[in-house]
Amino acid sequence: MRNEMMHRPVVKKELVDFMRNKQKMIQGELGVIEEEAHEAGIPIIPHETVVFLQFFLDQIKPKNILEIGTAIGFSSSLMAQYVGDDGHVTTIDRFDVMIRKAKATYERLGLTDKVTLLEGQAAEILPTLTGPYDFIFMDSAKSKYIEFLPECLRLLRVGGVLMVDDVFQAGTILDPIEDIPRSQRTIHRKLNQFLDTVMTHPDLTSTLLPLGDGVIMITKEKEITE
To answer: How far apart are CA 137 and CA 158, in angstroms?
Structure first.
């Protein structure tokens, strides 16, 4: 089913096309998987976010990464390229169909020892993890971001980065809630709550990026006790 929110760019269409089609493509089998996903209409991170992740992870060189929202395993496979020989990616998903597809992706890419897929509800799994993680990528149910935030901050090391995808709600995040379709109002309200929380928190530093449907990068400056 077509997700209309994925097809409403938050910047000019010409710029989106430029970022998605003119930046260097992924080489090898992972690049084939990216192309196959786009052709099949499978929701994965857009190519401008791919390129940003490649650049950013190469700079910070994380050893331990946590992902919330595995989908077909594309982004976790991408991130696994940047954790070094002794690093690891842990990812969480609850959908059986996606879990099967992700496992097939890891097998295809030879990443079964590099990526651990935890199956189940993130709300139940996150409290069982100990971390710390250098980088956390959250790309799950948007209405759950505010719910998952405390556990993400607990698991993130001081100086680590939490990257959260799809925070602009197809560019409607600032619209009055009365103008939002009823089916999207819970997401709208909770995304606004999430953004307000992280952007005003005294122990966090954040920056917004117009990649895909909006990305926010959050750094934990010190241990958070509340």
So the answer is: 16
